[in-house]
């Protein structure tokens, strides 16, 4: 049971790539929520000199390691987003390390007696629903997701589609959600929804 104290709770925040999780997480952090971010944890898990990075070098070769000893994220992304087997090899290296890092950060956050938000893009893919009290899905239609991803990361349509296709569909995630945050409109509309959504927690 992840609840600590009376009003403290653990919220799972997920959605598709570029659906707006980080935008939502920043609003929540500005309103007193503790954010535990899986993408930040996955960067820690493979930082220069880590066992995670050495395992990646062993599996994927020196071609994904930069001169300065850090991970060449673009090179590794080009390999794993279009090849399921390669992606599963990377996940097997990174995900156990990410879970340990995030568990420690979750406990530290709960000790502060504040609501904790676990920002996990692959929450449903990795069957982590049982680790949170409720799941909030940031929803945008697939076309909007692809449009915003291409704009943010300067990706081609093909690159954006390969990333989106490497995850459970956003429609499936919407069906599984305890609460849906519709981010297909303006930022103003997003923040208005969030203002109402966080009332029980602030
Ligand atoms: C492949 C990597 C190096 C690409 O790095 P890059 O800086 O280009 O992307 P970034 O890390 O910011 O991820 C952007 C988004 O891609 C999606 N994504 C990342 N990894 C995966 C994956 N293994 N499977 C599906 N989607 C993924 C997520 O929506 C994530 O928010 C990096 O994503 C990575 O290390 N992925 C493996 C760890 C992982 O699964 N992270 C997701 C946390 S749940
Ligand atoms: N309502 C909105 N209107 C227009 N642009 C938006 C809106 N919400 C988010 N964006 C933009 O869309 C892009 C994706 O948003 P964000 O980075 O928050 O998504 P994310 O789910 O965290 O992505 P990732 O899965 O890569 O971590 C960003 O460039 C962000 O500024």
Automatic annotation (TrEMBL):
Pathway given in the UniProt record:
Cofactor biosynthesis; coenzyme A biosynthesis; CoA from (R)-pantothenate: step 5/5
GO CC, alphabetical: cytoplasm
Please give the Gene Ontology molecular function terms for this protein: ATP binding; dephospho-CoA kinase activity
Binding site residues for ATP: 18-23
Q: Which reaction does it catalyse?
A: 3'-dephospho-CoA + ATP = ADP + CoA + H(+)
Which UniProt keywords are given for this protein, alphabetically ordered? Answer: ATP-binding, Coenzyme A biosynthesis, Cytoplasm, Kinase, Nucleotide-binding, Transferase
Q: What class of enzyme is it?
A: transferase
**What EC number(s) would the UniProt record show?**
2.7.1.24
Q: Does the keyword Methyltransferase apply?
A: no
Q: Which SUPFAM superfamilies match?
A: P-loop containing nucleoside triphosphate hydrolases (SSF52540)
Its subcellular locations are:
Cytoplasm
Q: Does the keyword Transferase apply?
A: yes
Q: Which family would the database say this protein is a member of?
A: Belongs to the CoaE family.
Function statement: Catalyzes the phosphorylation of the 3'-hydroxyl group of dephosphocoenzyme A to form coenzyme A.
Cross-referenced HAMAP family: Dephospho_CoA_kinase
This one is known as Dephospho-CoA kinase
Which species does the entry assign this protein to?
Macrococcoides goetzii
């Amino acid at each position: 049971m992840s609840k600590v104290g009376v009003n403290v709770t653990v919220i799972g925040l997920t959605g598709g790539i570029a659906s707006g999780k980080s935008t939502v997480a920043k609003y929540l952090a500005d309103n007193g929520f503790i954010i535990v971010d899986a993408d930040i944890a996955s960067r820690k898990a493979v930082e220069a000199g880590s066992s995670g990075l050495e395992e990646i070098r062993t599996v994927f070769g020196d071609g994904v390691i930069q001169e300065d000893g850090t991970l060449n994220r673009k090179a590794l992304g080009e390999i794993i987003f279009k090849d399921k087997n390669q992606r599963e090899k990377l996940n097997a290296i990174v995900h156990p390390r990410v879970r340990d890092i995030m568990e420690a950060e979750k406990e530290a956050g709960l000790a502060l007696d504040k609501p904790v938000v676990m920002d996990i893009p692959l929450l449903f893919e990795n069957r982590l629903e049982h680790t949170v009290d409720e799941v909030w899905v940031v929803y945008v239609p697939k076309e909007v997701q692809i449009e915003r991803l291409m704009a943010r990361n300067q990706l081609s349509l093909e690159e954006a589609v390969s990333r989106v296709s490497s995850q459970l569909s956003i429609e499936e995630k919407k069906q599984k959600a305890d609460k849906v945050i519709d981010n297909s409109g303006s930022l103003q509309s997003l923040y208005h929804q969030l203002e109402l959504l966080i009332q029980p927690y602030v």
